Amino acid sequence: RAKDDGRDRCALYDAAMQIDAQSRREAEHKVRRALRTNGLRVLWQPIVDLRDDDRLVAAEALVRIDDPVEGTLEPGTFVDTAEDTGLIVDVDTWVLGEVLRQLREWRGKGSGIQVSFNVSGKTLEHPAFAHRLAHSVESTGASGASLLAEVTERTLIDLSTTTRASLGELRSIGARVGLDDFGTGYSSLAYLDRFPLSFLKIDMSFVRDLGRSDRADAVVEALIGLAHAHGMVVTAEGVETRLQAETLRRMGCDRAQGWLFGRPMTATKLPVRYS
Ligand code: C2E
Ligand code: MG
Ligand code: MG
Ligand code: MG
């Protein structure tokens, strides 16, 4: 009996592994096809200044796949596979092209908005990425100082010579490098000193209970103090309620992003102001 149970569990486990491998192969296929057929798209999520009446100061580029069969695919369904297969380098490169194009358009119309983009550790391992970025910023006269590059804790933990050089190149064209999803990984303070970071984004898991839990409030207030002590601008992610926003404002958090201020949207829907 016990033996049979064991065998059943093994069979179930094998089946689950196969489904997993299968769905990864499908995800890989979808990313490859999207890269080949111009099937990637960028949506923009507003980032507001909590110290200035929730004024729109930046927008984060979030990638999507326009799948011919399934419609819009969110990054949660393909980014992991893209990282495992190395396809993320091409995805990030495509997104960056979009980011620079959009930035030029907004600049041309007189907006001072900043643009934030996610860059995988795998991508920073390719010396060509930062190089090309620097080149296209210089050759197009785009403003490097308007770029916010978001990296993950993992990137700083694994920091290689190549990655350090890539990040250094971003900084040399005036781009700011910051840490995304702070608090979800190792949350060790040790690596915050490994590279000069300009901003820190507090993960939404810390934001959820703000204003309702003394514990959550204490943790976030400490994170904001820590970031400010390091000279970093703090952005809170996943802000969905007025209570969360007001609590963050009271704590001196600089910026906020979340459904309360706007979901990821097309560039034309973003309420950009032109002077
Ligand atoms: P992220 O960089 O932390 O982006 C924030 C995610 O939280 C986005 O999910 C956004 O839609 C979602 N979000 C924003 N506000 C709220 C809110 O108030 N409530 C809730 N529940 N969710 C909110 P999305 O667009 O699905 O992206 C997921 C992740 O995929 C991103 O997390 C980022 O790590 C990755 N990603 C997206 N675009 C790119 C890209 O171009 N390159 C790379 N390497 N990764 C990307
Ligand atoms: Mg999403
Ligand atoms: Mg991000
Ligand atoms: Mg994040």
UniProtKB/TrEMBL annotation:
Domain EAL: 24-275
Protein name (Swiss-Prot/TrEMBL): Bifunctional diguanylate cyclase/phosphodiesterase
